[in-house]
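Q: Give me the 3D complex with zinc ion.
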Amino acid sequence: MADLSGALSTLNIGSGNESNNNEEEEAVTNAEIISTVAICAACGKEGSGDSMNTCNKCDLVKYCNAACKKKHKSKHKKKCERRVAELYDKKLFKEPPLPEDCPICMLPLPLAVGESTFESCCGKIICMGCIYAMVEREGAKNICAFCRTPGGESDEETIRRNKKLMDKGSAYACYWLAGYYARGIMGMPQDWAKANELYLKAGELGCVEAYFNLGSSYYNGDGVEIDKERAMHYFELAAMNGSVHARYNLGVIEGQAGNPQRACKHFILAARAGYEEALDAVKEGFRSGIITKDEYANTLRAYQKSQDEMKSEMRDKAEKKQRSFVIR
Ligand SMILES: [Zn+2]
Ligand SMILES: [Zn+2]
Ligand SMILES: [Zn+2]
Ligand SMILES: [Zn+2]
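A: Here is the predicted complex, encoded as structure tokens.
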């Protein structure tokens, strides 16, 4: 849906190294973390780990009391910030959950928007392959391929159904409605403020692409002031929960910020999920020596596997047919 402007389309993978973390400072003894008998990081006294005062941001230090904690605060600050960032990155670069399955063919939903559709009757997302299969089987009927409810007679009817689902807490209903407002279609006025409000709600209800769209709004300044930090925040939320589009954008943003290693980490994850553009970026990362041969080979294998899992005869047929028509 909302895509990023051309400014983002160029990749800037340089040869810079990632910032050198001071390894010697990193040497936090494991004993500090694991043992139940802990040592106060400020005064060095031993105490029972469970009853001690811990840093409420990181998992590295314990203190005998609040006074020790306070005394140690400025000394601990740097190490603490680094650890917090490290813990966050661990979450950020974890392999995200798989895409949801189409409820009819039970194959993972295609990554491209437009290769599946939202049904305002039952709130399901159906892949185009299953729609195509139904049409081939029973001819073109205006019914839902999943619950067989006749399609809305008008845009107003579809919107009414959509809102009803939204009231029941359907994330996708929120997401789709947001899209109507964003584009000003289906008889809705173009209203970015409303769209962004619904993207946020949809994201909170579990629609990852909604967070991606909200990130794009902050990136492009659609209905909000441009705010790159917030854009990153929502892209990260989306990516951690499985949006390959958000993951890809993070890669591009990190590349432009001169962080080729981080960029490639994002591209690898998106490529592993079967996202073609990300695989192209991984290839480039390999050519420039940022990605090793092994990493590249592993990514390629995972990419192929994800692609195969999303493929079906009916989806291929639907895609061919779609290409032969002018898309609505
Ligand atoms: Zn102490
Ligand atoms: Zn801390
Ligand atoms: Zn399907
Ligand atoms: Zn339905």
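A quick observation: Residues 215 and 231 are 4 Å apart (CA to CA).
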